[in-house]
Amino acid sequence: MLLSILREVVADGLLAVVLSFLFWAMWQCPIELTALLVATVIGALRLMRPVWARLAGRMHLRFNQWIEWPVWRRVASVHEAGHLIVAHRLGVPVAGYALTPAASYLHQRCGATYFEHHPNARDPRQLLRTLTVLVAGKVSEELVLGKSVGAGHDLRTLAQWAALIDAGLEAQGRSPVGAGFWQQACEAEARQLLKIDALLIEQVADGMRRHVPVEALLAAVDRARQPATCA
């Protein structure tokens, strides 16, 4: 709070210096008139600031809905499809998903996949499954789109988990392996699971864009693993 007030005071002070230079030094206004004009301009700007903030927010929201979201919608759906498919195939219960049209306006990611709570999340096998699901969105983008552009948050989370794993290894007197090792190993596992049926990623991603219930998407993943039967 105090820092915010200090920033506003400094900003108003700098603005007052600039306006004083314009009115008094360049335009040769009397000192009394210069002081009045500076106070009037700064006061008007302060009154207009809330209105401008609301207007800028609405403009940002509309820009996101009309321009940003149509571009990111496919990326987000392919990314979340990777999370969903790999999680389901590894036995991690999927609770739901969401694609967020106003993601940047709300300072959120464009999509999210939700999982049921595991009672023993730090179990080594469960932790490995968690890391594999975490990088599955990145792998899915690479398989379908040719490159990954929306995995920054996932990789930062993986680095945090890797730091905890390495700390545990060091506590046991073992050498840490680093986040790069876990990322590479888990990406290889996720890629193997997703390459079984690459078209399934597009199918699930399309279903997400059409708001298909998560149960139907999981059923589609199950059907994709069933062998074809002859009539």
Helix content: over 70%
Rg over CA atoms, rounded to whole Å, is 27 Å
Would you list the SSEs in sequence order as H and E? HHEEHHHHH
CATH superfamily of the largest domain: Peptidase M41
| Lateral strand order in the biggest sheet | 1-2
Question: Quick one: how many beta strands?
Answer: 2
Indicate the proportion of strand residues: under 5%
Number of domains: 2
SS content category: mainly alpha
Mean pLDDT figure: 81
CATH fold-level assignment of the largest domain:
Methane Monooxygenase Hydroxylase, Chain G, domain 1
The top level CATH class name of the largest domain: Mainly Alpha
Unreliable parts: 103-108, 227-231
Kindly report how far apart the N and C termini lie: 72 Å
What characteristic shape results from the CA principal axes?
A: elongated
Count of separate DSSP helical elements = 7
CATH architecture of the largest domain: Up-down Bundle
Q: What kind of sheet is the major sheet? A: 2 strands, antiparallel
Name a few traits of the molecule.
single chain; 231 residues; mainly alpha; Methane Monooxygenase Hydroxylase, Chain G, domain 1; 2 domains; two-stranded antiparallel ribbon; 7 helices; 5% strand; elongated; disordered C terminus
Q: Quick summary of this structure?
A:
The protein is mainly alpha-helical and 231 residues long. It has seven helices and two strands, in the order H-H-E-E-H-H-H-H-H. A two-stranded antiparallel ribbon has the order 1-2.
